[in-house]
Amino acid sequence: MKTLIFFLLALTLNACSGLPLNDSSSSEASLDSLRADIAQFLETSDAKVEETLINKLRAEKTSHADVKRILKEPFAIREGVPGLHSQKTLKANEKEYTYALFAPEPATEEQTFPMIVVLHGMGGSGPNTLPAWVERLNKQYIIVSPSYPMGAWWSKNAEEMVMKLIRETAAEYPVDFNRIFIAGLSNGAIGAYMMGMFYPDLFAGVVPIAGSITPRYMHFLVNLNHTPVYMIQGKYDPMFPIALSRRVYQILSDMKYPAVYREHEEKGSAHGGHFMPESEVAPLVAWMSQQKRSPNPNTIRMTREANHMAPIHWAQLSRGNQLAALQIPGPEQEKVNLRDGKIGTLFALFKGDNLIEVMGKNVVECELYLSEDMIDFDKPVIVTRQTIEDSNNQLIPGPKLPGYHQRARKDIGVLLRHFKERRDPELLYDAKINVSWEESVGFAQRQ
What we know:
- One of its GO terms (molecular function) is hydrolase activity.
- Residues 156-257 form the Phospholipase/carboxylesterase/thioesterase domain.
- It comes from Candidatus Nitrohelix vancouverensis.
- It is a single chain.
- The protein has helices at residues 2-17, 28-43, 47-59, 64-72, 126-136, 156-172, 187-198, 242-254, 281-289, 412-422, 438-441, and strands at residues 83-92, 95-103, 113-119, 142-146, 175-185, 205-209, 229-234, 259-264, 299-304, 315-320, 344-352, 355-361, 363-370, 381-391, 394-397, 401-406, 431-436.
- By secondary structure, it is an alpha/beta fold.
- The chain folds into 3 domains: 34-72, no CATH class; 83-290, Alpha/Beta hydrolase fold, catalytic domain (Rossmann fold); 299-436, no CATH class.
- The strands form 3 sheets. The chain has an 8-stranded mixed beta sheet, with helices on both faces. Strands 9, 11, 12, 14, 15 and 16 form a 6-stranded mixed beta sheet that branches. The protein has a 3-stranded antiparallel beta sheet with strand order 10-13-17.
- The two termini are 34 Å apart.
């Protein structure tokens, strides 16, 4: 009910303000009705209700500009209370988890704050982790620190819980969607890497501290093309081999990705070099202050497996050829989808003037999300596709083939469904087109 209540409050206050929300073609009464329809769409879990509302808005030829304006409106009243909260709860995966949260007091109704999710290590907890970060960040960030058994943040349950926590925090507090960070220490560093790589377009930066990933998952570093990484690792860390962090940094550097690597030689009394020295705090905070997400970059690079097929920015690898399903189960019972197979690779390049190039390896189909800010909907969209092959450890693109050549049609359903999934007002798309490789590969292996 929270979403519905927020939208209705916004509706009432905006109606009383007497200020138009869009051009004169949309009356205040019609905008109020549209807000109510959007609120109902976002609140319902019934697919039939969703389809009925979308068909209604299509029949009414609802303006995409009006819908976007409403989706970008800040809630009139937020339930989130500023201050330090050490025992909040979140229900996810039919379980209840605890987390700690700090939120600054906004000076105005319009003020937003950067947010950071901090993941603890084995033996840690959210309440024990949060206070140090409140002081490190000078009480200028919204900070959420969840608790999870054994700090097993690589598990699917933990991942889904963190993604839900981000969405719910952003609904209750004034979060700057272009300045969301994820950080973690030890096991938490593994989680920061994994969630950063699988959901790179969500974060303005990834901060792994005293932890790394194994070579099996280094394939997915490709996804961090536009997501800066700030790594802090102790040379004498007895828990994580320094060679792993050095290898990650080498890969990111070779790809010319935005990455900072800080290797210290300090030794703590309890865990050797397995901690973050206070001397590293100020440089990290200065770096974070400079980071801001680019919501819709022109170039997208991604690697995907069957358990992580969500869009990255405006492109999605929607079907692959015999893709692997990779999963490391955690301490809780969870659904396991694990199988050997291939890794899918997709590169998408927006060249301007309605021209897009896509290249794929082990790709059967991709989907491209388009907005008025990207293309001219009065002109055809031209997409060329290429198959990527391995040759002497290099990726070589094949000949360019036609992938799409027609006008893209705006669809209110695409706009609303994508927003409902992400709840991100900076990622709003008017249309979706499909590009298939079936003709070139000869078959389609559905995932």
